[in-house]
Amino acid sequence: MTNRSFKAFLAAMGPGILVAATGVGAGDLATGALVGTKIGVAVLWAVLLGAAMKYVVNEGLARWQLATGETLLEGAVSRLGRPIRFLFVPYLLFWSYFVALALMSACGISAFAIWDALRPAEMAETLQPMDGKIVFGIMHSIVAVVVVRIGGFRLFEKVMNVCIAVMFVTVVTTAIAVRPDWSAVAAGLVFPIIPDLADTGLSWTIALIGGVGGTVTVLCYGYWIREEGRDSTDDIPACRLDLATAYGMTALFGIAMVILGSQIEVEGKGATLLVQIADQLEQALGGLAKWAFLIGGWGAIFSSLLGVWQSVPYLFVDLWTMPADRAEQQNRAPVNAASRGYKSFLYGLAVVPMSGLFVSFDQAQKAYAIVGAAFVPMLAVVLLLLNGRADWVGERFQNSRRTTIVLWAILLFFVVALGFVIHKSFFAA
Questions:
Q1: How far apart are CA 234 and CA 10, in angstroms?
Q2: Which of 39, 66, 121, 410 has the fewest CB atoms within 10 Å, measured from its CB?
Q3: Using one digit for the tens of pLDDT, what is the confidence trace for 106-132?
Q4: For residue range 227-264, what is the model confidence (pLDDT) as tens digits?
Q5: What is the distance between the alpha carbons of residues 72 and 317, in angstroms, rounded to a whole number?
Q6: pTM attached to this predicted model
Q7: Which whole number is the average pLDDT over 22-32?
Q8: What distance separates the 2 farthest-apart alpha carbons in the chain?
Q9: Can you give the C-alpha Rg of the chain in angstroms?
């Protein structure tokens, strides 16, 4: 592939690559590794299922927007009732705070691990892990703001392309290097088996399916395709192609992490677990494997942070500036990254969650995980309602029977999974 054709490929796949880079973070990678350690590669099919679910949801979002000219948020508020707006704003604020806090913490931990391995022995006491998490977490937040504000969408897109290339090459190559049992990997991808079903196998499988591909950030795809100039139904095939690429890459990352976890023993959570995996890889494969994985893990986490910083302010401004009259809404200009509301939310997102870097927030994290998981079934309901009406979206673009069945299956799965998580978290002895 020539340099020109490679650039053309990146341009065509741009929004999809952003989806993949934003959707894969420390939590997703850590969940994959822990599943591999706990129950092995027999549940690799769950990664494929999770990625397929998110593809169906995001394709429906893009189809609605390109068929109607409205973002999914605009459509939900104008067609289903204005209370949706007032319910989603506090949800978005809660989600934004804890996601931003988790991403800053994860960036701080992974960056400190790289710094700790590089600094001379005489500087070993200059920065402790807790301080390193705070310092590097704040630095990453500031850098993300600079990239978004000064470089604009094009610089953001280029940085994300670099990050996802780094994470793709390093994580997948490391998974191949540990030499798993490829026949077991193939069986795990094809046969839907859950080991230890009566014990913890079901809960880990649910976590793996639900954790693939992000939650609220799914909505951001609509704003990214606007940035790329996609605004008509002629662009639906392009969206389907780049979303298939995005979730194919997401599934590949998840599969690689499950393979790694199945080959080395890991415990813990979040970015701390990624550091532990790197240390284990050093013992098994040498220092090069450790460095490759540390850099790849950092690329995954920072790309998620950067993607959230750039895209989530769109959601807030879209909701906040939505006019009461639907006719006015149809005539208003698209959400602009140069607007005061966008910049204000970006700065708040980058600064306010820093307060959580200094305290423990385990219970809040548990609450955030449950609220985040609840988003996908809500989105499935909205897509069933909006894209199910031929008079709204057009007969050609309304949900097919197959898509409707899949959306109902997604809704059922997440309702059951959410009930299971709530029971295990708050009511189990």
A1: 19
A2: 121
A3: 888 888 888 877 766 555 566 676 777
A4: 888 989 999 999 999 999 989 989 998 899 899 888 88
A5: 14
A6: 0.86
A7: 76
A8: 71
A9: 21
Burial (0-12, 13-18, 19+ Cβ within 10 Å), 219: buried
CA distance 235 to 360: 46
Q: Contact 379/218 with Cβ under 8 angstroms?
A: yes
- The one-letter amino acid code at 190 reads V
H helical segments located in 81-125: 83-118
Question: Cα separation of 161 and 299, whole Å?
Answer: 10
* Domains of the chain, each with CATH number or no CATH: 3-427 (1.20.1740.10)
Looking at residue 60, its amino acid is G
Instruction: Give Cβ neighbours of residue 221 (< 8 Å, ≥ 6 apart).
Output: 15, 18, 19, 58, 61, 62, 243
* One-letter amino acid for residue 332 of the chain: R
Tens digits of per-residue pLDDT, 317-344?
Answer: 888 888 766 666 666 777 778 888 899 9
Those residues with Cβ within 8 angstroms of residue 53's Cβ, 6 or more apart along the chain or in another chain? 209, 212, 376, 406, 410, 413
